[in-house]
Write a structure and sequence with these properties.
The protein is built from seven helices and eleven strands. It is an alpha+beta fold and 181 residues long.
């Protein structure tokens, strides 16, 4: 989604009522972020809304990107937020062979998750289709991709092939390099 360098369009202030709604939506979507929500979006702060290409909205605080949303999809945190609070998100792992493809913007395929180096949660912690997931790379400390799953983890384990994630926000993409002024 953000393969090319992008530039922000119109920048506007978010009304306080809309800002409260965003805080609530973030806590609903990511319940483990609840203790940290005042660090991420302080109550008396002023959020900015930036319009990006392809109908993407970016919410930023003090020129620091926090969350992005494509049309009516869920709010997805920027990788800076993921790196600051890694314990608050559902995770899957990719093997070493998939790293270079993911970091070049390719779709995430099931073999990268089901091979020896990949990591999927147990059946008790199954992730559903449409859920926002952080992708970590084998042997690396930081997350490299965040996006929505196209199929549940049990289906991934059963099929072992197919597209798992179409697009997302990855290290080094246009959203990562975006400078807000």
């Amino acid at each position: 989604m953000f393969k090319k360098d992008i530039s922000a369009g119109a920048k506007s202030k978010v009304k306080s009522s809309a800002q409260r709604a965003i805080r609530t939506k973030v806590i609903e979507t990511y319940p483990l972020l609840a203790p940290h929500i005042d660090e991420i979006i302080p109550k008396k702060s002023q959020l900015d809304l930036l319009k990006l290409p392809d109908r993407v909205s970016l919410y930023a605080l003090d020129n620091e990107p926090l969350f992005w949303q494509h049309m009516d999809d869920p709010l997805i945190p920027h990788l800076h937020v993921v790196h600051a609070f890694p314990q608050c998100f559902s995770k899957v792992g990719i093997d070493r062979g998939a790293i270079r493809f993911v970091l070049s913007g390719a779709t995430l395929m099931a073999p990268g998750l089901t091979s020896a180096g990949g990591r999927l949660p147990d059946a008790a912690e199954e992730l559903k289709e449409g859920q926002v997931v952080v992708v970590e790379a084998e042997g690396k400390e930081k997350a490299c991709l965040i996006g929505q799953l196209r199929m549940g983890t049990e289906e991934i384990k059963a099929k072992k092939k197919g597209v798992v994630m179409d697009s997302g926000h990855y290290l080094g993409d246009g959203l990562w390099k975006l400078v807000i002024d």
